[in-house]
Automatic annotation (TrEMBL):
Domain Cation-transporting P-type ATPase N-terminal: 49-125
Molecular-function GO terms, alphabetical: ATP binding; ATP hydrolysis activity; calmodulin binding; metal ion binding; P-type calcium transporter activity; PDZ domain binding
Protein name: Calcium-transporting ATPase
Family: Belongs to the cation transport ATPase (P-type) (TC 3.A.3) family. Type IIB subfamily.
GO biological process: regulation of cytosolic calcium ion concentration
C-alpha cells in the first residue's frame, strides 16, 4: 500500500474527531480502526487479540452483536454516521456552466473570429485624420455607412457568444445526464446486512460502522471489515495490490477484508470497520484528490503514473451524487486503451480531419486572392499611392478579407459533428433506459449497432430463470413428474430433504407470493430455489432443518465454483462423526459415486456400467427435454481420525448417490421472435452455457438458434478446447477459424472458454470486416469475456457486482429481447449521424464554394461573416439536435450491419450531397450574377466597405437558408427512400426546430429601415424643437415618399415627377394661405418653390437622357454625376437637412451628412444603401435661419444651377 499508511496525512481531517469518538460512547476511535485495517494476515489477528481479546470484544466496543447485528435504531445509526462517517466518497464537483463556457471559448476558430471581430469593431470607430482623405477613400468611407460599420463586428461577436452558449449548454446537460446515470447505477447496488437478527438488503450508502454484512461469491465489497465467520472464502485483491492470485481469507488466519475487492469464492459474515473516506478505497481517492477540485490535474497525472489495473480498477464507494463518476471516467480512460475507438468515432475523427484540412486550404486561398486582387487593382492598375493617413482604411479592407477567410473556415469545419454524436448518444441512452438498457459507457450504444455476433448466456437471458423441478430419479425409479411422498422410502426422503436444505446458501429461500394467485418468490440462487421447491413439493419444509443446524454450526463448506461444478457441506453429527452432502452437475457428481440408494433407502454398489446405463436412460432423456440435471449425494466420515479437509480430491470421492433431479427453466416467450429479428438483421446468435450439451441443444432449438437438419456445431467445452488447441495446449487462430463460423452452441463451458471464443472471433481475419462481438454475462468469472467483447452486457438481476463493473450495458430485466432493442438504438445512432453528415456536408460544400468564388469574382463574399455564422449555428447546432433525435424504426433491423470498414458516406449519400449541392449552387450563382435583372432591383455586387446590406444579397441569403431548411427534411432519409416526410410528426423536436429556424430567419431579414434605432446607435442627435404644422409634416412626407420612389429605377421616375408637381400645388396653396404662420414663411416658401421647379427640370433632363440610352440602366449615381448636380461646397459640416427634420422624419435620419470636399462617388450600384446619391436631398421647408443664407448649401446649389 506504500504511502497510504501515512497517518499524518489523514490526521488533519480526523484529529478533531478522536476526542469526540469516546464521547460518542464507542470503545474504539476512527484512527484506531484505521490503523487496524492497515495490518494484514497474522499481524492483524495478533493485534485484535492484544487490543480487543477477540472478535466478540471488538463487536462489544462497537456496540453490535456478531449474530444479530445492529438494532437499526435511527438515532444510533445517525450517531455512527457522525462519529465514523458515511459510506460515500464526496464526488468531484461538476464543472460549472461558466467553466464550460470558458472551455467552449478555447476553440481556435472561435478565438480567431473574436480577434478579427474586435479589430473590425475598433476600426469601424476610427475616423481618418486631416481634411483630405484622398482618392482611395472615395466611396469607401461614406459617413452614413461608417455609422453602420460597427454592426458587423458586433454581430460576429454576438454570433460567437451564441455558438459558445449553445455548446456549453449541451456539455452541461450531457454532464448532468451522465451524473444521473451514475446515481442510477449506484442505487442499483444493494448489499445484504444483518439488522435486528433479520437479513435485509440495504443500499450501499446506508451501511455504517458496526453493521454485520453477509458476503458471498460475486460481491464487490463496499466497505472495509473484519471477517467473523467464513466458508472457503477467496478474495481477488488485485484492484488494490495488483496481485492477481486470489487470497484465502479465514477468521483465524487473515480476517482483513478491504473495500473495492471482489469475492471470488465462498461466503461469510464480516464486521464493518471503515466506511467512506476512511476505507482503503476512500483513502486512495482522498490521495487522488477526489473531493478537491484544485487537485484534479495532479490526480490525473497520478492516475496516469499508477500501474494500470490498480488505479483503474479502483472500485468506488457509492456516493449520493455520483461520486463513482470519476473512477468511471478513469475506467473509461483505461478502456480506451483496451478497446479500440468505437467504430463511429474512428470514422468521424478521420472525416473531420480531412474536412478541416480542406477548409483551411480554401480559406487561405480565399484570403490570398482577395488581398492580391485588392492590392493589384488599387496600387498597380489604378496607380494609387499608399497614403499614410489612409492606412486604417486599407487595414479595414484587409481585416474584412481576413474575416471572410475565417468565416469560410468556420463554415467548412464541421464542429457540429462531435455535437451531433453527443446529442444522439445522450438522447439514445436516455431512451434506452426505458427499454431496460442501462448504458454505462456512451460509445457502447453506437458500437452495438454494428454488432455481427452475440454470445449469450442461456440461464436467465434466453430462459425465465425461474427454476422448477419437474422430474426425478430416486430409489431406482425414474419419475417423469414429481412423485407422491408416499411412494418414496422414509430413509431416502430424510436424507434428500437434509441434503438439499443444508447444502445450499442459507440466503436462498422461497417466499410466499406477493400477489394473490401469483407464483412464490424465489430469492437467491435459482437452481437451489428449484431444489427447495422440490422439498416443498414432497410436503416437507426446509426451514426447521436449517433452524436445527444454523449456518455458523456448518463444519466446512466447499462452495460452488466453475472448476468444481459442485457444492459440498460438512456437518458434525451428534456421535462425533461427520457427514458431507454434495450436489452438482449430474455427470460430474455421478463419476465420483461408488454407491447409490435403492428403493428401501439402503446403499448398493454403483458400478461403472450402471453409471453408463443411467446416463443413457435417465440423464440424456431429461437433457433432451431441455431439463438441467442435478445429482444429490452424501458421504459419511469417521470422527476419529478427523479427515484432512483441505485434501479436496480425497474428500469429494466415494460418494453415495441419493437422486437425480431434472429442473426446467422455460424459454422466455419473447426470445424466439427476438432471435429471428437478430438473424434477419445479419447478427449471429451463439449460446454459451455451463449446462449439459443435450439441455443446451434442446433450448437452442426452442429458441430458434439452431434448426434441426442444419449444418451447425453444438459442442461442449472439452471438445472445443481439443479442436482449437495444438499439442502444447496453446490456442491457434487457424484452428479457431475452422470452428467459430459454424459454432452455435458451446455447452459445459468454463468462463475461460467464453473468453477464448470471444477473443478468437474478434481476432479472426476470415471475413473482410472485423467481427463486432457482444457478450452477455452474469458471473464473476465472466468479467474477462465482458471486458474483451466490443460490448459487454451484464445482468441487472442475476448479475454479480463484478460482472456489472466489467460491462458496458446493464440489462435491468435480464432479457435477451432488450439486447435487440440496443441493436436498434445503436443503428439509429449511426443513421442519425449519417443524416446529419449528409446535411452538413451539403451546406459546407455550397457555402465554401459560394464564399470562395464570390470572393474571387466580386471581392466580397455574397454570404457575410455574420450570415455564415448564423448558418453555421442552424446547421451545426440545431440541425444536429433535429436529426440526432429521430426515433428508431423496425426497418433498421431489416439490413445487415455496416461493419468497421464501410465508409461513413455511402454512395447514395454522395449522390444526394452532390445533387443537392449542384442545384443550390446553380440557384445561388444565378441570383448572384443576374438576380438584379430578375427581380428588377439594384445590384449588390462591388459594394464599398461597410455598405449596409443590399436587397440583392439579402435575397441570396434568404434563398440559401431556406434551401438548407428544406434540405434538412431531405436529409431525414439516407437509404434512397422516396418519401422524406414519412414519420416526420413522430419527432416533435425536428418539427419545432425547422419551424423555429424559419421564424427566426424571417425576423432576422427585416429591412434595416424598420430597425432605424440601430443606425443611430453611434451618434447623438440634438433635438431642436420648432413649432410645426400638420400640413408641413404632410409636406415632408410627400418629399420623403418622392425620395423613396426615386430610388426604384426608371419605371418609377414618372411617379416621382407627379409627386413633385403635386407638391408644387401644395406650396401654392400655402402661398395663398392667410394664416399668420403662412405669412411668416411666405418668403422661404417662394424660394423653395423655385428650387423645386429647378430640381424637377434637372430630373427631367437626366431622365430623358437615360431613356434615350436604354442600355445604360441609370441608377441614382448616373443622375448625380449629371454636370448640373455637382455640388462644390466648401462650408465645413453644415447639414443639408435640419436636425429637427431628422427628428420629425426618421427616414431622413439615415441621410448622411456631406463630407468636406466629397469626391465624385465610385460607381457603386448598391443604392439600396442610403448612399452618396442622396447628398442632393433638399429640405423644401427649411426652418433654420441659415438655410437660405449665402453660405448655406441651398445657396451654393442655386449658384451652381
Amino acid at each position: 500500500m506504500g504511502d497510504l499508511t501515512n497517518s499524518d496525512y489523514y490526521s488533519k481531517n480526523q484529529r478533531n474527531d478522536v476526542s469526540s469518538n469516546h464521547e460518542g460512547g464507542f470503545g474504539v476511535s476512527v484512527m484506531e480502526l484505521r490503523e487496524l485495517m492497515e495490518l494484514r494476515g497474522s499481524e492483524a489477528v495478533v493485534k485484535i487479540q492484544e487490543e480487543y481479546g477477540d472478535m466478540d470484544g471488538l463487536c462489544q466496543r462497537l456496540k453490535t452483536s456478531p449474530t444479530e447485528g445492529l438494532t437499526g435504531d435511527a438515532t444510533d445509526l445517525d450517531k455512527r454516521k457522525e462519529v465514523y462517517g458515511e459510506n460515500l466518497i464526496p464526488p468531484k464537483k461538476p464543472k460549472t456552466f461558466l467553466q464550460l463556457v470558458w472551455e467552449a471559448l478555447q476553440d481556435v476558430t472561435l478565438i480567431i473570429l473574436e480577434v478579427a471581430a474586435l479589430i473590425s469593431l475598433g476600426l469601424s470607430f476610427y475616423q481618418p485624420p486631416g481634411g483630405d482623405s484622398g482618392e482611395s477613400a472615395a466611396g469607401a468611407e461614406d459617413e452614413g455607412e461608417a455609422e453602420a460599420g460597427w454592426i458587423e463586428g458586433a454581430a460576429i461577436l454576438l454570433s460567437v457568444v451564441c455558438v459558445v452558449l449553445v455548446t456549453a449548454f449541451n456539455d452541461w446537460s450531457k454532464e448532468k445526464q451522465f451524473r444521473g446515470l451514475q446515481s442510477r447505477i449506484e442505487q442499483e447496488q444493494k448489499f445484504q446486512v444483518v439488522r435486528g437478527a433479520q437479513v435485509i438488503q440495504l443500499p450501499v450508502a446506508d451501511i455504517v460502522v458496526g453493521d454485520i454484512a453477509q458476503i458471498k461469491y460475486g460481491d464487490l465489497l463496499p466497505t472495509d471489515g473484519v471477517l467473523i465467520q467464513g466458508n472457503d472464502l477467496k478474495i481477488d485483491e488485485s484492484s488494490l495490490t495488483g496481485e492477481s492470485d486470489h487470497v484465502k481469507k479465514a477468521a483465524d488466519r487473515d480476517p482483513m477484508l478491504l473495500s473495492g475487492t471482489h469475492v471470488m469464492e465462498g461466503s461469510g459474515r464480516m464486521l464493518v470497520t471503515a466506511v467512506g473516506v476512511n476505507s482503503q478505497t476512500g483513502i486512495i481517492f482522498t490521495l487522488l484528490g477526489a473531493g478537491e477540485p484544485g487537485e484534479e490535474e495532479k490526480k490525473e497525472k497520478k492516475v496516469k503514473k499508477q500501474d494500470g489495473a490498480a488505479a483503474m480498477e479502483m472500485q468506488p464507494l457509492k456516493s449520493a451524487e455520483g461520486g463513482e463518476m470519476e473512477e468511471k471516467e478513469e475506467k473509461k480512460k483505461a478502456n480506451v486503451s483496451k478497446k479500440e475507438k468505437s467504430v463511429l468515432q474512428g470514422k468521424l475523427t478521420k472525416l473531420a480531419v480531412q474536412i478541416g484540412k480542406a477548409g483551411l486550404v480554401m480559406s487561405a486561398i480565399t484570403v490570398i486572392i482577395l488581398v492580391l486582387y485588392f492590392a493589384v487593382d488599387n496600387f498597380v492598375l489604378q496607380k494609387r499611392p499608399w497614403l499614410t493617413e489612409c492606412t486604417p482604411i486599407y487595414v479595414q479592407y484587409f481585416v474584412k478579407f481576413f474575416i471572410i477567410g475565417v468565416t469560410v473556415l468556420v463554415v467548412a469545419v464541421p464542429e457540429g459533428l462531435p455535437l451531433a454524436v453527443t446529442i444522439s448518444l445522450a438522447y439514445s441512452v436516455k431512451k434506452m433506459m426505458k427499454d431496460n438498457n442501462l448504458v454505462r459507457h456512451l460509445d457502447a450504444c453506437e458500437t452495438m449497432g454494428n454488432a455481427t455476433a452475440i454470445c449469450s448466456d442461456k440461464t436467465g437471458t434466453l430462459t425465465t430463470n425461474r427454476m422448477t423441478a419437474v422430474a426425478c430419479y430416486v430409489g431406482d425409479v425414474h419419475y417423469k413428474e414429481i412423485p407422491d411422498p408416499g411412494l418414496l422410502s422414509v430413509k431416502s426422503l430424510d436424507i434428500l430433504v437434509n441434503a438439499i436444505s443444508l447444502n445450499s446458501a442459507y440466503t436462498t429461500k422461497i417466499l410466499p407470493a406477493t400477489k394473490e394467485g401469483g407464483l412464490p418468490m424465489q430469492v437467491g440462487n435459482k437452481t437451489e430455489c428449484g431444489l427447495l421447491g422440490l422439498v416443498l413439493d414432497l410436503k416437507r419444509d426446509y426451514q426447521p432443518v436449517r433452524n436445527q443446524i444454523p449456518e455458523e454450526k456448518l463444519y466446512k463448506v466447499y462452495t460452488f465454483n466453475s472448476v468444481r461444478k459442485s457444492m459440498s457441506t460438512v456437518i458434525k453429527l451428534p456421535d462425533g462423526s461427520f457427514r458431507m452432502y454434495s450436489k452438482g452437475a449430474s455427470e460430474i457428481v455421478l463419476k465420483k459415486c461408488t454407491k447409490i440408494l435403492n428403493q428401501e433407502g439402503e446403499p448398493r454398489v454403483f458400478r461403472p456400467r450402471d453409471k453408463d446405463e443411467m446416463v443413457k436412460k435417465v440423464i440424456e432423456p431429461m437433457a433432451c427435454d431441455g431439463l438441467r440435471t442435478i445429482c444429490v449425494a452424501y458421504r459419511d466420515f469417521p470422527g476419529d481420525p478427523e479427515p484432512l479437509w483441505d485434501n479436496e480430491n480425497d474428500i469429494l470421492n466415494e460418494l453415495t448417490a441419493v437422486c437425480v433431479v431434472g429442473i426446467e427453466d422455460p424459454v422466455r416467450p419473447e426470445v424466439p421472435s427476438a432471435i429471428v429479428r437478430c438473424q434477419r438483421a445479419g447478427i449471429t446468435v451463439r449460446m454459451v452455457t455451463g449446462d449439459n450439451i443435450n439441455t443446451a441443444r434442446a433450448i437452442a432449438i426452442k429458441c430458434g438458434i439452431i434448426h434441426p437438419g442444419e449444418d451447425f456445431l453444438c459442442i461442449d467445452g472439452k471438445e472445443f478446447n481439443r479442436r482449437i488447441r495444438n499439442e502444447k495446449g496453446e490456442v491457434e487462430q487457424e484452428r479457431m477459424d475452422k470452428v467459430w463460423p459454424k459454432l452455435r452452441v458451446l455447452a459445459r463451458s468454463s468462463p475461460t472458454d467464453k473468453h477464448t471464443l470471444v477473443k478468437g472471433i474478434i481476432d479472426s481475419c476470415l471475413t473482410d470486416q472485423r467481427q463486432v462481438v457482444a457478450v452477455t454475462g452474469d458471473g464473476t468469472n465472466d468479467g474477462p469475456a465482458l471486458k474483451k467483447a466490443d460490448v459487454g452486457f451484464a445482468m441487472g438481476i442475476a448479475g454479480t457486482d463484478v460482472a456489472k463493473e466489467a460491462s458496458d450495458i446493464i440489462l435491468t430485466d435480464d432479457n435477451f429481447s432488450s439486447i435487440v432493442k440496443a441493436v436498434m438504438w445503436g443503428r439509429n445512432v449511426y443513421d442519425s449521424i449519417s443524416k446529419f453528415l449528409q446535411f452538413q456536408l451539403t451546406v459546407n460544400v455550397v457555402a465554401v464554394i459560394v464564399a470562395f468564388t464570390g470572393a474571387c469574382i466580386t471581392q466580397d463574399s455574397p454570404l457575410k461573416a455574420v450570415q455564415m455564422l448564423w448558418v453555421n449555428l442552424i446547421m451545426d447546432t440545431f440541425a444536429s439536435l433535429a436529426l440526432a433525435t429521430e426515433p428508431p424504426t423496425e426497418a433498421l433491423l431489416m439490413r445487415k450491419p455496416y461493419g468497421r470498414n464501410k465508409p461513413l458516406i455511402s454512395s447514395t449519400m454522395t449522390k444526394n450531397i452532390l445533387g443537392h449541392g449542384i442545384y443550390q449552387l446553380v440557384i445561388i450563382f444565378s441570383l448572384l450574377f443576374v438576380g438584379e435583372q430578375i427581380f428588377d432591383i439594384d445590384s449588390g455586387r462591388h459594394a464599398p466597405l461597410h455598405s449596409p446590406p443590399s436587397e440583392h444579397y439579402t435575397i441570396i441569403f434568404n434563398t440559401f437558408v431556406l434551401m438548407q431548411l428544406f434540405n434538412e427534411i431531405n436529409a431525414r432519409k439516407i437509404h434512397g427512400e422516396r418519401n422524406v416526410f414519412d414519420g416526420i410528426f413522430r419527432n416533435p423536436i425536428f418539427c419545432s426546430i425547422v419551424f423555429g429556424t424559419f421564424a427566426i430567419q424571417v425576423i432576422a431579414t427585416i429591412p434595416n429601415s424598420k430597425l432605424r434605432f440601430l443606425r443611430g446607435a453611434g451618434q447623438l442627435t440634438k433635438k431642436n424643437e420648432m413649432p410645426g404644422d400638420e400640413d408641413m409634416n404632410e409636406d415632408n412626407e410627400e418629399i420623403d415618399h418622392a425620395e423613396r420612389e426615386l430610388r426604384r429605377g426608371q419605371v418609377l421616375w414618372f411617379r416621382g415627377l407627379n409627386r413633385i408637381q403635386t407638391q408644387i400645388d401644395v406650396v401654392n396653396t400655402f402661398k395663398s394661405g392667410s394664416s399668420y404662420q403662412g405669412q411668416l414663411r411666405r418668403q422661404s416658401s417662394t424660394t423653395s418653390q423655385n428650387q423645386d421647379i429647378r430640381v424637377v427640370n434637372a430630373f427631367r433632363s437626366s431622365l430623358y437622357e437615360g431613356l434615350e440610352k436604354p442600355d445604360s440602366r441609370p441608377s441614382i449615381h448616373n443622375f448625380m454625376t449629371h454636370p448640373e448636380f455637382r455640388i462644390e461646397d466648401t462650408t465645413p459640416h453644415i447639414p443639408l437637412i435640419d436636425d429637427t427634420d431628422l427628428e420629425e422624419d426618421p427616414a431622413l435620419r439615415m441621410i448622411p451628412q456631406s463630407q468636406t470636399g466629397s469626391q465624385p462617388q465610385s460607381p457603386n450600384k448598391n443604392n439600396n444603401a442610403v448612399d452618396s446619391g442622396i447628398n442632393l436631398t433638399i429640405d423644401t421647408t427649411s426652418k433654420s435661419a441659415a438655410s437660405s443664407g449665402p453660405a448655406s448649401p441651398l445657396h451654393s446649389l442655386e449658384t451652381s444651377l
